[in-house]
Amino acid sequence: MSTANNTATNTVWVNASAGVAGDMLLGALIDAGADITEVVNILFGLGLNDWALTAEPAMRCGIAATHVVVVEHHHDDHHHTHRLHSDIVALLNAADIPARVRERALATFSVLAYSEAAVHNVPVEQVEFHEVGSIDAIIDIVGTCAALEILGIDRIASSPIATSHGSIRSAHGILPNPGPAVAHMLATHLVPTRGVDVDYEVSTPTGVALLIALAETFGASPAMPIAAIGHGAGTRNPSDRANVVQVLLGVTDVAHEGDIETLVVLDTNTDDVTPEVLAYTVAHLMEHGANDAWVTPIVMKKNRHGHCLQVLCQPQLAGKLRSIIVQETGSLGVRLSTVERFAAAREVVSVDVLGFSVDVKTSNARLKAEFEHAAIAAKATGVPLREVMRLAEEAARGYFS
C-alpha cells in the first residue's frame, strides 16, 4: 500500500499581502536560507551570458530584508529582451538544471504564455515576451525555482495576492493596473486577491505567474511549526507600508493534516425544474468534470417546495459548470463559495475481470471497484454485479499489499 500520504512535507507559505514580484520572491527565499552561490550555480546551467545576480541587505519599514538585483550587460543589439515563448521552452529544455527546477519554470512560463496569448489574441506559440522575456525576468523565475530546490521545498502555499490600482508603464504603452496579463491570470485561475490602496504596481506578471503555477492552495498559512522565515524587498521603499514578500518555511505533517485541496461549491435554488431535468443536469455536470453534484429538497419562501442543486468542483471548472447549470435549469443566479477539503491519498489500478478492464480505487486501506466498469462486465457476462466488483477488488488487493 502506498505510504505517500504518511510523510512529512517541506512546505513554504508565501505572504503576498503586500504584493509579489519574481525578484522579491527570490530575495525572500535567499533570506530564508537558500545559498545564493548555489542558486547561481544552477542558473549557470541555462547557458545565458552577460548577467550577474547580487543579494544585498535592505530595510523596508524597519524590517530587515534581502534585495536581489539582476545586472544585465547589454550590448549594441537588444534582441535578447524579446523572446518567443517557444524560445524560452527550448532554452529550459536544453538547460543543464535539476528536473524539478525545469518543470516548475516551464509551468510558470506556461501560465504567463496562455494569459499573454488571450490578452493579445495570438496563438500561444507566437506569444512574444517583452519585459518577461528579458534576462532578468528569466533569472528571477528560474532562480526562484532553484532556491525552492535548494531549500528542499515540496509544497508551496500562498496568501491571497495583493492588487492595486492606477496605471503602469509597459512595452505596449500605459496600461491599467493591474496589467491585463496579471488580471487575466488571476481571473482564469480564480485566485483570491486583496486590494491595497496604492496607485503603482504591487504584483508583477513574474511574481503572480510563479504563485499561480506553483502554489497548491491560497489562504491562511498551513498548520506547521515555523523553521525559518525570510523577507524579500521590492525596489520601492514607501514610508507607510513594508514593501516585502514574506516566506514561512516549515514541515507539514501530512499524516495528521491530510492533503488540503481548495475547491469551489456552486449552488442554486429551483422551484420550477422537474426531477428528471435535475437528474439529467447532475449527470451532465459529472460528465464535465465535477467532483460531485447533488440535489437536496428544500422549503422556500411562501412554503414553496423546491430543490437546491449543488456542485463541488476544481476552481478552474467553475465557469464551465456554472454555464451548464444556467443552461439546463434556467437559473437566474448561481452562488459560488470556496471550501477546503481534506483529501485522502488515492491510487487507481486497472485489473482484468472476466476479460474486461475494471478500475479499482484505494483510499485508507479501502478498495472500491469502479461501478461503471464493473457494470459493463456484469451485463456482458451475466455474472452478478456484486460478484464482478468482489473479483475486481480481490485482484487489486495484490497490487496494493
Give an overview of the whole structure:
By secondary structure, this protein is an alpha+beta fold. The chain has three domains: 4-257, no CATH class; 259-343, 2-Layer Sandwich (Alpha-Beta Plaits); 346-400, Ubiquitin-like (UB roll). The chain has twelve helices and 20 strands. It is globular, with a radius of gyration of 25 Å. Mean pLDDT is 86; it is low at 1-6 and 76-80.
Poorly predicted ranges:
1-6, 76-80
How much of the residues is beta strand, in percent? 25-35%
Termini separation (Å)? 5 Å
Q: Taking strands numbered 1, 2, ... along the chain, how are they ordered across the largest sheet? A: 11-6-1-13-12
The helix-and-strand class reads alpha+beta
Number of domains: 3
Number of strands: 20
User: What is the percent of helical residues?
Assistant: 25-40%
Number of helices: 12
Profile the largest sheet.
Answer: 5 strands, mixed
Question: What labels would you give this structure?
Answer:
disordered N terminus; alpha+beta; Ubiquitin-like (UB roll); 401 residues; 3 domains; 5-stranded mixed sheet; Alpha-Beta Plaits; 35% helix
Provide a short characterization of the protein structure:
With 401 residues, the protein is an alpha+beta fold. It is built from 12 helices and 20 strands. It has 3 domains: 254 residues, no CATH class; 85 residues, Alpha-Beta Plaits (2-Layer Sandwich); 55 residues, Ubiquitin-like (UB roll), CATH 3.10.20.300.
